[in-house]
Design brief:
With 286 residues, the protein is mainly alpha-helical. Helix content is 42%, strand content 9%. The protein has a two-stranded antiparallel ribbon with strand order 1-2. A two-stranded antiparallel ribbon has the order 3-6. The protein has a two-stranded antiparallel ribbon with strand order 4-5. Strand 1 and strand 2 form a beta hairpin. Helix 2 crosses helix 9, helix 4 packs across helix 7 and helix 8 packs across helix 9.
Length: 286
């Protein structure tokens, strides 16, 4: 009887240990037997993360979809370097009072991606990206994984704003509908190629109520805007020393192949002549 009690006790202990092991395994991140990884659906192999749906992409790009095309491309690429965005904001806070040429020379000495360096001339944009870094990171990851889908979302949001009467040509920017490779696209360009204005707007005002919630970004209050205007513009920034070769890239609209290409004349392309979109293959920086 004693041996039977010992055997029963041993079996009970073994069952408890196995139960504990199973419970621990269920809590281990990335355990494919029990956990579903980010972006994966139950039953998937884990090789192909699920794509972000169109309505979520629409909301994700809403805060920047009405930027002029060159600025839009610059911001999309910069969003793939969220750590450098934070570093740039901190650096700008430590280098106040520099004139345009001094700022351009100083930022060029930093080891950041050229698109990050060029944003030093647009502190309002840097502030938006840095103070909403989760949204910035999500935007960058979406752009790396689904570039065509992101650019298509930009066009959908522009169409919504245009249909609502809130996207039109102004003294600051030129809005045109063009046919590119049999595809109609809304193109936004600077009214003066030598001066850039940063648009500011509340997505709910310019697009209407969202299907998927807009990013929780602090937008300017209604009184910030000029009477009757859904979009406001900051002070114009001259495209001088900061962009001696122009913006980094165009938006490459049309044909379902909306590739953002790189302008190698950008003043801040470093010695290794990095191609930002090719670098995207290495993934988002930590």
């Amino acid at each position: 009887m004693k041996s039977k009690r010992i055997l029963a006790s041993s079996l009970l202990q073994l069952i408890r240990e196995l139960t504990a092991i199973v419970c621990i395994a269920m809590l281990v991140p990335g355990n494919e037997a029990f956990a579903i990884g980010p972006g994966q659906q139950s039953g998937s192999t884990g090789d192909q993360p699920a794509k972000i749906p169109a309505d979520q992409l629409d909301s994700l790009v809403a805060p920047i979809a009405l930027y002029p095309d060159p600025m839009l491309s610059q911001v999309l690429i910069a969003s793939t370097y969220p750590l450098e965005v934070i570093q740039l904001q901190q650096w700008l806070g430590q280098h106040k009072g520099l004139n345009e040429k001094q700022l351009a020379d100083a930022v060029q000495k930093q080891g950041w991606d050229p698109t990050i360096q060029a944003l030093a001339g647009l502190p309002d944009v840097v502030k938006l990206l840095a103070e909403n870094i989760k949204w910035t990171t999500d935007l960058g990851n979406a752009f790396l994984a689904q570039q065509d889908d992101v650019m298509a979302a930009v066009q959908r949001m522009r169409k919504k704003a245009q249909d609502s009467g809130n996207l039109k040509s102004t003294d600051q920017q030129k809005v045109e509908t063009k046919t590119v490779e049999s595809t109609q696209v809304i193109v936004i360009e600077q009214a003066n190629p030598q001066v850039v204005y940063v648009p500011s707007y509340n997505p709910t005002v310019v697009y209407g109520a969202p299907v998927y919630a807009y990013p929780p970004i602090a937008y300017p209050p209604p009184g910030y805007y000029a009477a009757g205007m859904a979009i406001s513009f900051g002070v114009g920034v001259a495209m001088g020393a900061m962009w001696s070769g122009g913006w980094c890239c165009g938006s490459g609209w049309g044909g379902g192949n909306n590739n953002v290409t790189i302008n190698n004349n950008n003043n801040f392309v470093n010695n290794s002549n990095r191609q930002n979109i090719n670098n995207a293959n290495r993934g988002n920086r930590p």
